[in-house]
Design goal:
The complex is a heterodimer.
Chain A: H1 10-32, H2 34-49
Helix pairs in contact in A: 1-2
Chain B: H1 9-17, H2 23-41, E1 44-46, H3 49-64, E2 76-80, H4 107-114, E3 118-123, H5 151-158, E4 164-169, H6 175-181, E5 184-187, E6 207-212, H7 215-225, H8 243-249, E7 255-258, H9 263-266, H10 269-284, E8 288-291, H11 301-324, H12 330-341, H13 344-365, E9 370-374, H14 394-399, E10 403-410, E11 416-422, H15 428-442
Parallel strand pairs in B: 2-3, 2-4, 7-8, 7-9
Antiparallel strand pairs in B: 1-3, 4-6, 5-6, 5-10, 9-11, 10-11
The chains are: A mainly alpha, B alpha/beta.
């Protein structure tokens, strides 16, 4: 299970994602996913920096 | 006198209604055009000629008797190969679905048939409508990408092998290839057109898209396909407006909001100059132009979109991935694997940010009739290993607001440039009216030199 805190850096998030990828698909596949993992870490960091109103529910179907 | 294949959808439908054009002649003309072009372009994947001509003969007999089924009577339409077609293969550009033959039509396909339309065939899609490039060629320059994921649909319309084709948009998959190929693209409000029977990328982001050569045709196709569908949980309820009438009513100089922030910084100088020139022409023709500021929530909308898309894509393909991961293309596979790594809390955070972003976009778009930005940061890249950059479409897809892409000129290299207009949810009538006015004011109709 990937564990992330809002204070985590992009690099720390990438480490978590990489570790989970290794657990799921092995070292080789995790290595092939390196670029995607780094992009995803950045995306997760981006949304982690945003604060939303406590009462705001997800939209799903717009 | 134009050849039948050169007619727009509206022109062909009117001529059939007036008994000046035979549906069989129109179908034959398009099939011959496909024969003449598709060995090179690779825009089409499945065509059942016998079925097309049988349907055309039926529509012709009905027309002779003065009976027309609806707005598309006797007019062929193309479908991206992710739309379910009863009895016809729907492979979604994938080995995983290579032999899949649905036993029902997508709701949008059923509505086209109810309106008298004829399914001409299935157009090439990138694999599962994501970003692994398709074999289709850009008719403006074979060395450049045609865009994606609705690559076949866009190229088919641009090269006049069909007047209208359906696409889809999860990020920029309708309006980006429309821009790269010099045609008109419409992505309506989320839920306006049913997604039922369309192979999904991401349920909460997917939109059915319309690819045509004129704004009027976009309105006609939207009229035919809109409406509530109990099979689509995201479908909008309520009556369908008369979009063609609304388009005519709103065909007047609009109040246009320009967004320079982000779009100027991320466009090539050539694209930004073209956008400014377009605005100048529209202002000279009578439009009122004001500058708008993007909301703060804009800065995370691209990341939120990617997180939502990857997680939902992973959920849809989870079982296939478990048994045949090697059969997926590299980009769709890595995207779904990223989705499998993303924690549920982050997915929900992304969905909450989307909702906030939508609220903010509504506030911004509500200040004007339409918002105008460049449709693409640069012309179609000289790289067939990419489908291009969807970043200018993503905000509209993520927020579910309707947009139209219009051709706005040619680059120094002779490739199409385009602008996109966006509007408030459910205001497609006003959007199409403004787009039609802009289309006339710009007088821009593009055709690839070797496929005019």
């Amino acid at each position: 299970m990937v564990s992330m805190k809002p204070s985590d850096s992009v690099e720390a998030i990438a480490v978590e994602l990489r570790a989970q990828a290794v657990r799921l698909w092995g070292e080789q596949r995790a290595g092939e996913l390196e670029t995607s993992i780094n992009q995803t870490a950045q995306q997760l960091w981006d949304v982690g920096q945003e604060t939303v109103d406590r009462d705001l529910e997800p939209g799903f179907y717009q | 006198m134009p050849k039948p294949y050169e007619l727009t959808v509206s022109q062909a439908a009117q001529q059939i209604k007036d008994k000046k054009l035979s549906p069989v002649d129109l179908a034959q003309s398009l099939l011959e055009r496909i024969d003449a072009t598709d060995k090179d372009l690779k825009a089409w994947v499945t065509i059942d000629r016998e079925e097309v001509l049988t349907n055309a003969k039926e529509r012709e007999e009905e027309a002779k008797q003065g009976k027309t089924r609806g707005l598309l009577h006797g007019v062929p339409v193309g479908l991206k190969d992710i739309f379910y077609t009863a009895g016809m293969k729907t492979a979604a550009g994938s080995k995983v679905y290579a032999d899949f033959v649905p036993d029902f039509d997508a709701t949008s396909v059923a509505k086209i048939k109810e309106a008298g339309g004829i399914i001409l065939g299935k157009a090439v899609t990138t694999e599962f409508a994501t970003s692994d490039p398709s074999p289709t060629f850009n008719p403006w320059n074979f060395e450049h990408t045609p865009g994606g994921s609705s690559s076949g649909s866009s190229v088919a319309v641009a090269t006049k092998t069909v007047g209208a084709a359906l696409g889809s948009q999860t990020g920029g998959s309708t309006c980006r290839p429309a821009a790269y190929n010099g045609i008109v693209g419409l992505k309506a409000t989320y839920g306006r057109i049913s997604r039922y029977g369309v192979v999904p990328v991401s349920w909460s982001l997917d939109h059915v898209g319309i690819l045509v050569r004129t704004v009027e045709d976009a309105a006609l196709m939207l009229q035919v396909m809109s409406g509530e569908d109990a099979n689509d949980p995201g479908s909008l309820s309520g009556p369908v407006p008369d979009f063609l009438k609304q388009m005519t009513d709103h065909n007047r100089p609009p109040r246009i909001g320009i967004v320079s922030e982000y779009y100027s910084e991320n466009s090539t100088p050539e694209v930004w100059a073209n956008t400014q020139e377009t605005v100048k022409q529209l202002t000279a023709a009578g439009a009122e132009v004001v500058e708008l500021d993007l909301p703060d929530s804009f800065k995370s909308c691209h990341s939120a979109q990617r997180i939502v898309m990857n997680v939902e894509c992973a959920a849809y393909h989870e079982q296939s991935h478990a048994t045949q991961a090697e059969d997926f293309g590299p980009r769709v596979r890595s995207g779904m694997e990223m989705g499998m790594l993303i924690p549920a809390t982050k997915y929900l955070q992304a969905q909450r940010l989307r909702r906030k972003f939508r609220q903010d976009m509504i506030q911004m778009a509500g200040q004007v009739d339409v918002v105008l930005t460049p449709a693409i940061p640069a012309p179609a890249p000289k790289d067939r290993n990419t489908t291009g950059d969807a970043s200018f479409q993503v905000p509209w897809t993520t927020s579910g607001l309707p947009t139209v892409t219009l051709p706005s000129g040619l680059s120094e290299d002779g490739l199409p440039l385009a602008v996109q207009l966006g509007a408030l949810p459910l205001e497609e009538g006003k959007l199409l009216g403004a787009a039609k006015w802009c289309e006339s004011a710009l007088g821009m109709s593009l055709s690839p030199p070797n496929y005019g």
